Amino acid sequence: MKYLPELFEQNQRWSLRQLQDDPEYFQRLAAQQAPKYLWIGCSDSRVPANQITGLNPGEVFVHRNIANVIVHTDLNSLSVVHYAIQVLRVEHVIVCGHYGCGGVKAALDGQSNGMIDNWLRHIEDVIERHSAALEKLPDPTAKWRRLCELNVIEQVRNLARSTPVIEAWKSNQELMLHGWIYGLDNGRLLDLKTSARNRQELDQAYAAAIG
After folding, report:
1. Residues 44, 63, 157, 178: which is the catalytic one?
2. Active-site residue, 44 included
3. 101 is catalytic
4. pLDDT band at 92 (very low <50, low <70, confident <90, very high)
5. Is there a contact between 70 and 77 (Cβ–Cβ < 8 Å)?
6. Is residue 1 very low, low, confident or very high in pLDDT (cuts 50, 70, 90)?
7. Active site residue 46
8. Which residues pair with 41 in a beta bridge?
9. Cα–Cα distance between 97 and 150 in angstroms, integer?
10. pLDDT tens sequence across 105-147
C-alpha cells in the first residue's frame, strides 16, 4: 500500500515537466551544491524561500523554524550556519520573517501554548526589550506587524554574535547579513535595512532600524 499517492503522482508530473524543459536539469543539480545564499526563515508553509525569490533548487541553502529565531544554544540552526559559511562559503545570510506570523502573535498574546512556549520565550525577550516603543502603537495589528519586524532585526543581531559569523568576519571572509520581511498579502519582500559586512556596520544598522 502506498501512502499519500497524490504526492507521488504530483512528483512524477513535476519531474517530467522539468526534464521536458531542461533535459540536463537533474544531472546539474546532482553534480554540485554551490549556493550564494543562506536563508533563515519561518516554518510557515506560505513562505517558501525558493519561490518568493525566484531561485532554483541548489541556489539557496535553507533553514526554517518557528518565527525565524536564532538562539545561541540551538545547535541545529548554528550547525546550518556553520556549514553554510565555512563549507558552502555562502556570501549572504538572510533572516526573513513575515507579517502575520503566528509564532510572533502567540508570544504577543502571552497565552499558554504548551511546549512551544519554551521557544517563544525568545520572542518575549524581544517584546520586553522594545516594550516602550510597542506600547506607543495605536492598535494590536500595528503592534503585531512591528513586532514581526523587530523580531527579524533582533535575530540578525543574534546571528552577528554567533561563532560562525564572528570567525568569518575575523578572517575577512566575504559575508553579508540581511534582515527582510515578507508580506503574505502581496507577495513582496521588504528590506529592514539591517545589512552589514562587519560588526560595526551591524551596530549602526541595528540602531537605525529600531529607531
Report:
1. 44
2. yes
3. yes
4. very high
5. yes
6. low
7. yes
8. 64, 96
9. 10
10. 999 998 888 999 999 999 999 999 999 999 999 899 999 999 9
Confidence (pTM): 0.94
Does the annotation mark 148 as catalytic?
no
> What mean pLDDT comes out for the span 91-109?
97
- The catalytic residue among 98, 130, 146, 178 is 98
Cell readout for 111 is 497565552
| SS3 category, 128 | helix
Which residue is catalytic, options 13, 17, 46, 161? 46
Residue 55 has pLDDT above 80, yes or no: yes
Helices (H), the chain: 5-21, 25-31, 49-53, 75-82, 102-109, 116-129, 131-135, 140-160, 163-170, 199-209
Radius of gyration of the chain (CA): 19
- Catalytic residue among 63, 64, 96, 101, which? 101
The residue assigned the cell 517558501 is: 48
In the numeric block, the cell 497524490 is attached to 6
Residue in the block written with cell 539557496: 60
98 is an active site residue: yes
